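Protocol step 6 of 9: fold each sequence in the batch and record its structure tokens directly after the sequence line. For illustration, a two-sequence batch is reproduced in full.

Sequence one:
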Amino acid sequence: MFQKIRVAVIKSTRPVYLAGLMSSIFFAVGVQKIDAHAGLLARHAVYTGIFFVCLWAACRLFAGSLNRRLALEGVCSESAGDMVYTFVIYLEIIKHVVGVSFTLGWIAGVMFCWDYLGHQMFLIPAGASLAVSMVAFLVTYGIASFVDNLHWPEAEDE
């Protein structure tokens, strides 16, 4: 029963719907604070459009990563069991949270290098930025590779 409901929801749910809903909420909340200035309203509408595009792209990327991960498990989204699907969603959320966190940390680290070492010759802050970039990349790649090697335990055939 739950399998049929989940398949129907997966087939009818599109990232554009979620992005449209969240963008509408974003626009509605922002309009409450605008005091009838046409420039602010137009600027907020542009920001809402940018927010929509970014959220739509993020939803498409997440859906694509879920399908890729389900393919690694040897199932498709329509035939995957609830536990396998939940397991795959959990692993992909972990990878995305780690990726976003280390991306923000990488940006902060590079900015710190250029702020703290910017008064010295060019190669010193550039080298420090490269070192921060390599550490962030290696840690993120290592965690993503580790999570990609985790698989749903299957029943052993005898």
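Sequence two, same batch, same settings:
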Amino acid sequence: MSANKEALHKQSVSVFAPASIGNVSVGFDVLGLAVKPIDGTLLGDVVTVENVLEQPAEDSLAVVGAFADKLPQAKEDNIVWSCLQLFNQALIAQGKTPVKVQMILDKKMPVGSGLGSSACSVVAALAGLNAFYGKYHDYSFDEKTLLKMTGQMEAQISGSLHYDNVAPCYLGGLQLMVPDSEVISRTLPGFNECFYVMAYPGIEVSTKAARDVLPTSYSRADVISYGQNLATFVDACHRQDKVQAFSVVTDVVAEPYRTNLLPKYQQAHDYLKAQGAHAVGISGSGPTLFCICESEQQAQNFSQWLKDNYLQTNLGFVHVCQVDESGAIEI
């Protein structure tokens, strides 16, 4: 096949899925916020879906990127491959015939970082496949169906169904998970003018380990405190009362038990709060720390302090971010 003819028949779609803050301290397993660096860095994963031009045509998966070596070698063990199988099954259930595709995962997100790394791969893969079929085969799934697929894949990884990373990663913004399978998530009016400093220290904390340290039961006082804080936060979001909202961004469910898993976290938390941060917390199950700031200058100052005092390996990084309102996008 000539180069011109190959170019003519090449079908390719790339989708970027952004990092997210799971829990946002105040909403364990029910709040999530998509974030993006203000300098344009792609903090998230990219999945490219292409048609297969060679014969015999077979599905394939390639993994590239800064953190590719942290993923399983066999494609069958990669969650992106599982996303392809799930998507194809859904197509067949709708009477459609899947085509053979090559998928390329650009793994920009560190594994076990608390930034929704697996959610990024899942969302980029499923949204990429959906965009590919919508663009070249005149068929795609609606937003709710695709969101349910992302949840199904996240459950396969973590062992329990929760949308606090996949929902903001896919939809963007600040998402509140609701106990209705036909709604799943509601977008809250957030504080998009604020700056969110994300500091990944360069060490890995598995979600399983972070969940294993949590107690199996909580006191009545903790349950009341959690409910009151979350309700106050949601109310303050709708009233756009920043002071009230950030005054209750406190984690009574996980942070007290996870702090010991995170070297230097307590020191950083106490310093940043003393210096006037709106809120400081553990992103997801850690070890990434997030810090909410009023101004870009304050965020840049905290960013430098965290680079000097929180990072522990050369894999670590700090980004000054704002809310990503777009979620997964074709690039």
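Proceed to step 7 once all outputs are recorded. Observation for sequence two: Residues 1-7 have pLDDT under 50 and may be disordered.
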